[in-house]
């Protein structure tokens, strides 16, 4: 009965389509009274659970993508969520994974709204940063213990929560205002590099100079420091970048 009920309630086409699909797959329908004690027919009772399942999944998406929901409006977000869940039904026991493909889906479903797709990318980065495995931050003593001659070969481990994105500045401004519960103000133009990470159980974000973002991305890839610095002008405030990143807890290992 449980397998039949799950197949019917979670079917992307609704309860009626789920009943037909279950029959075709050989799942036997349980003995449910045609009319229940409250007067509801069997199909109506099953449909209540199917509708509740969709509402729950939409709530999960709306929680993970609150700024996108605000940008699109309730009705448009509801249509998007229904289309997404039909195309990508929940298959993982952890609902944190439910919206993982939504940014890509938004780009295809709303090709004229690049703002929405970029906003979804930012919100997914926030979710990933929050859910990433906890790691101890690299201590100042560990950094100070490295002999100067070894630094060119050092590989700095960047925390699993760190996400680097290249986004329209207007998207970052909108998301910042939404998080603060404020109305968006005049939006900036152009692109920015944004670092999103978790520290002290809080998701944080910081805009980086583009060369700083390039350097941090190279370190993420596991390049030794000398190779990571290749091509960057020596006039850049690299020491200040590293000091800030260490204070932000971005580094978790020395190799």
How would you portray this structure in words?
This protein has 12 helices and 5 strands. By secondary structure, the protein is mainly alpha-helical. The chain has 2 domains: 1-129, no CATH class; 132-255, no CATH class. The strands form 2 sheets. A 3-stranded antiparallel β-sheet has the order 2-3-4. A two-stranded antiparallel sheet has the order 1-5. The protein is globular.
In short:
A three-stranded antiparallel beta sheet has the order 2-3-4. A two-stranded antiparallel sheet has the order 1-5. The chain has twelve helices and five strands. With 255 residues, the chain is mainly alpha-helical.
Biggest β-sheet description? 3 strands, antiparallel
The residue ranges in which pLDDT falls below 50 over 5 or more consecutive positions are 4-8, 31-40
The pLDDT mean sits at 86
Order of helices and strands: HHHHHHHHEEHEEHHHE
Distance between the termini: 54 Å
Q: Count of DSSP helices? A: 12
Question: Which secondary-structure class do the elements indicate?
Answer: mainly alpha
What proportion of the residues form beta strands (DSSP E)? 5-15%
């Amino acid at each position: 009965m449980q397998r039949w009920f799950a197949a019917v309630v979670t079917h992307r086409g609704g309860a009626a389509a789920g009943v037909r699909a279950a029959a075709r797959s050989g799942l036997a329908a349980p003995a449910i009274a045609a009319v229940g004690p409250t007067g509801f027919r069997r199909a109506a009772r099953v449909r209540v659970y199917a509708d509740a399942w969709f509402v729950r999944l939409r709530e999960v998406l709306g929680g993970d993508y609150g700024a996108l929901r605000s940008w699109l409006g309730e009705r448009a977000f509801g249509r998007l969520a229904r289309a997404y869940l039909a195309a990508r039904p929940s298959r993982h026991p952890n609902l944190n994974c439910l919206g993982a493909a939504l940014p890509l889906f938004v780009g295809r479903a709303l090709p004229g709204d690049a703002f929405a797709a970029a906003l979804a990318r930012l919100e997914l980065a926030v979710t990933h940063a929050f859910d990433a495995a906890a790691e101890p931050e690299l201590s100042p003593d560990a950094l100070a213990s490295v002999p100067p001659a070894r630094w060119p070969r050092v590989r700095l481990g960047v925390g699993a929560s760190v996400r680097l994105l290249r986004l329209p500045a207007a998207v970052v401004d909108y998301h910042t205002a939404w998080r603060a519960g404020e109305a968006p103000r005049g939006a900036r133009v152009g692109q920015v590099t944004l670092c999103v990470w978790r520290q002290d159980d809080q998701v944080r974000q910081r805009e980086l100079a583009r060369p700083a973002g390039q350097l941090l991305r190279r370190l993420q890839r596991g390049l030794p420091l000398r190779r990571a610095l290749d091509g960057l002008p020596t006039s850049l405030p690299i020491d200040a970048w590293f000091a800030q990143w260490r204070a932000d807890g971005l580094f978790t290992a020395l190799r």
